[in-house]
Amino acid sequence: MTEGSLIDPGRSGPSEQRGFPIAREGYPLIIGWTFVTAIVAVLGLHTLALLALAITAFICFFFRDPKRVIPEEEGAVVSPADGKVLLVDVVQENEFVAEKMLKVSIFMSVFNVHVNRMPEKGRVTDVVYYPGKFFSANLDKASVNNERNAVSMDISGGRKLIVVQVAGLIARRIICRIRKGDLLRRGERFGIICFGSRLDLYLPADTVPAVSPGDKVLAGSSILGHLS
Predict the structure, then answer these.
(1) Where are the beta strands (DSSP E) in 79-196?
(2) Could you read off the pLDDT of 126-152 as tens digits, one per residue?
(3) Catalytic position from the list 152, 197, 221, 222
(4) What is the pTM of this model?
(5) Which CATH number covers residue 202?
């Protein structure tokens, strides 16, 4: 991957044609547990084999990566994650922003798809990792205390967008596949957080929200708001 290149690190083309719809980060775990299942089955340990098979099935379920139809509407900002909207509010001056921005927080339970997608097209200006704790991701303090990874982007009109991957209570691995200088399209896959987490999205303050707390959203296809 070269700096400034147009990348799509999780799909094979604009129509989102993929083979087996599993995020690549899940392959080692799936292969490992499939091997364990086969061994205990051969040894005749049927109860353990069923347990190992159930774990393998859950891992496949967790790392699923379904196709999504990406809206082409001009100025639309799509959700970076599947889950439940926790917060839609204008905030000012924190570790990520120095001016007023609209913050949208999304909680992902272990049952949601955890592949993260870009809310809007633009160029990555910075990727910063922050070590931290592992409070439950549905708590407000998770945004400032938990382990997190912030991606800053320049979007159309000289505006800025920030998407923050936040680890949760049992999530212990944040994966971000992009780096400074990359050009990304709306809806592109850019990372994944393992086993329950949160996404905080910061948009220009004059963005018109299209969701409210409690709404359920899908990464890449649900519109969170419209840029003015």
Answers:
(1) 83-91, 101-108, 115-117, 122-130, 148-155, 159-167, 174-176, 183-184, 189-193
(2) 999 988 777 777 777 777 778 889 999
(3) 197
(4) 0.81
(5) 2.70.70.10
